[in-house]
Structure formats: structure tokens, C-alpha cells
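Repro case for the chain-ordering regression, as requested:
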Amino acid sequence: MTRTPVKVLYIDDEENNLIAFKASFRRQYEIYTAKSAAEGLKVLENLPVEVIIADQKMPETTGVEFFKSITHSYPDPIRILLTGYTDIAALADAINHGDIYRYITKPWNDLELHNSIKNAYDAYRSKIDLRNKVKELEKTNDELNRFIYSISHELRAPLVSVIGIVNLVKMEGLYHSSGEYWELIESCSSKLDYYIQKTLQYYKNNKTVTDKAEINFKKLVDEIIEVYAYNNRDTQFKIDIKQDDVFIGDAFRIEVILGNLISNAIKYQKSDEREKIVEIAISANKFSAEIAITDNGLGILNEHLEKIFTQFFKSKNNQGSGLGLFIVKEALNKINGKISVSSNLDYGTTFKINIPNGI
Amino acid sequence: MVPPSKLTSQMAFKVDRPLRVMLIDDNIIDLKINSKIIGISKLFDDIILCQSGEEAINYFKSRYDETDQLPQLILLDIQMPEMDGFEFLECYKELPEKLKTNTIIAMLSSTLDFGDTKKAEANPYVIKLLKKPLFITHLQSIFNENFIVGK
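-- result from build under test --
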């Protein structure tokens, strides 16, 4: 395998050392030498050097000073410091500020220096490889984000038109004009919309960026109920919100969490229940928000309680996507929240959440 | 200076019939659906349909001497080719004051993007972001909050 030799820059004010270095290593490496920091910088400006070796003791600029000066302008090359005697102060300074990979004492041992250069080059490669991987990942992430955006807009827009048409059909009194066909179209399109919304929530939650904002729980809960109870007028809401302090949190995730839990509480009611009740109690102070959402609905089987937060778990009686509570759990993980659930089959379910105040 | 529409978002202002609403949407199907819904609502007497932001801006510019032809409410889509809803608002801002005094804008979009909602609500001309599909009740509440019909 042919490989371009490693490019090494060696800076030393003693010309004899430069000559000796070249003599020892010119077969293995592509060597550039400089008699001062200023000269060394010129080489860096013109060549992609991979390993830099600098002598500590030089007039004008010392090795460490030189390394410090190029931390930002040339962060990639791996640095090796050479010094004639054990200078503890220089050593400490080098480690703390110069981003030095190795410290080698003069006169150097050819084998030791050779190994150091080899290792330094490996370190250089892995640094560059890592950066390329990160770039690749960023690109993939970016594509994923654009994909989400296109789901949100391109896929959902025509679907929402379909839902709009069904609403028109209802308004014009044609809903029952073709047997149950309109009803079926409506239920299919709202299911599809539900999946699109959940998919979006899932991906958005996966993005690490948290968007801190002031949360007004009263307003938020009102908005959520307005959205989810729109097609369900027979559920009673008992809302008890105590918020005395400013609450700072991740607005998107908190909305997702409350939205999923409240819509579940509305959805999983007993169809023959006369008094469908959803209770929402929130108490927020400067440390955290305690939220309890209780319904008197179907309840959850004991053996299902552990599984409800796992992805794609669905109970066979209920039509869910198996994503809602999974997203709730994931979103809570991102904002250091906690959730617990207790349930009695046929009597209802309570979800309790704790979200720290990011004030 | 507070733009007129922000002022009116806090208090309703008096309007006289005929009332006009302008729909700006690149999607013909949505234009059709939403004008039907507005028709059923009986809230407005005239519906102006524009398939692009440019068309809407031109409509405004060409009515400089017939401001009675201008809409009291604009329902503005966000996602549109070339000039999107937010870009429309930038162009709208540049229109002469005279053309804007009696008009308020609500955005109407199928977006689920939190950012869009924030951006819309931060715009001084926008009173609300409505989500598609449009519901008569939502239109009605915007109407009641912002207009008092004279005669």
C-alpha cells in the first residue's frame, strides 16, 4: 500500500538539530524545518502539516508560546515539545495551554521520537476521521429535519384539505347521504393525521435542542382542551391550577406531554359512562410543577402498566398508535421529568408528572 | 407606532357592510373549501380569492382610490411557492397606511411547527394563527373579537 508520507514540521533555532533530525527521519517522513516560530508559521500557512515538533528553548518565541499562538489558527496538527532539560514550569504550561501531545527530552532517542511521531499521526487521523463522521452525522440529521418538515407540510396539507371537505359535507347535511362512507373517510383521515402528528412529535423530541420559554399552565391547558375536546363535548373537565411563580420550561415538550395525556384521558373513556370526567391538577412553584391527570375511564390492566410507555405497545381493545405514551416518556427524559401511573380497571387512571422548573 | 391591527386585536372596531374577506392560498382546493365554509358562515358579503401573495399585494395597490373594495380580514396561508405568508407580511408592511387601516390579518395554515405559531403571533399585523381545517366557530370568534358591524 502506498501512502503519502506524514508531513512533519520541526522548529528549532539550532541548525545542527534540524540537520540531525532530517538525517534520521527523511526516509520515513516528509520533513519541513524552520529556525524560528515565525518561519514555522510560514510553513503552516502554505502546507497542511500533520505533526509539529518544536524546541522549547528558542530566542524570541518559545515552543510553548508558539503552540499557544496557533491553538485557534491551526488546531489540527499534533504537537510534540522538545526540550534540553526538564523544565517543570514549561512542562506544566505546555500541558495546560499548548495542547501538547508528547513531551520529549533532548537529546532525543531516534526510536522514541519515531514512535511518538507515528502515534501523533494516528491521533491526527482519528481527530480528522471523527470530524468527518460528525460532519456526516450533521448532514444526515439535516436531511432528517428536512424530511420532517416535508412530512409536516407536503403530506399533511392535502390530508387537512380532505378533513376540511368532510367538515363541509357535514355542514351541508350530506354526511349521511352515502351510507357510512363519509364516516369511514373521516375516521381514516383523522387516524392518518394522528400518525403524522405523532411521528412529528417523536422526531422533534429527538432533536436535542430545548427551547426555554415561560409556561403559563392555565393558558396551556385551556388551549390543549380546546384542541382535543373539540369533537367531544360530553367530557367534563375539572381543572385546578395553582401557579404562583414564573415557570421556565421547554414549551414544545411540555405541550406534547400534556397534550398526549389529556387526549388519552378524553379518548379512553367508557362509552356507556354518563359522567365522563377528566381532572387536571397542577401545582407549580419555583422548584417544580406537580401535575396529575385523572380520568374515570376504562383503566389499564395491571400487567399492562409496565408496558404502556414502550414503543408500539397497544392494548388490543383500544385503537392507539402505540406512540403517545412512548413520546411522553421520551419527552420527560429530555427535560428531567418523572412520571408515574396508577390505574383501576373500569374505574380510571391517574398519571402523575413532575417537571423541574428551569428558572 | 403601534400598527392598526395590533390595536384592533385588543378591541373590536366598527365596520359597515358589505364586509369582504380575502383568502390568500396557492392551493385551489383549499381556496374552494374555505370560501364554501365562509359562505356557509354568512359572516362576509364578498370573498376575494388570491392564489399568491403577489396577486394580493397587486389587488391592494390597484385599489388606492377605491379603498371600500379592500377586505376587512385577510386569511393568509403560510406555505406558498415564491412568496410565502411571512414574505407577504413583509411586502404588506410596505403598503401605504391608507390601504391597511381597515384590515386585519389571520394566518391560516396546516402547520404543526411551533416556530410558525410564534413567528405569526410576533408579527404586529397578525391577530391569530388559525389551523386548517377552518371551522366556522373559529372564524366566528375572530369576527366577534374584532368587528362590530354597524348596519
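Ordering looks correct now. Residues 28-41 of chain B form the longest helix (14 residues).
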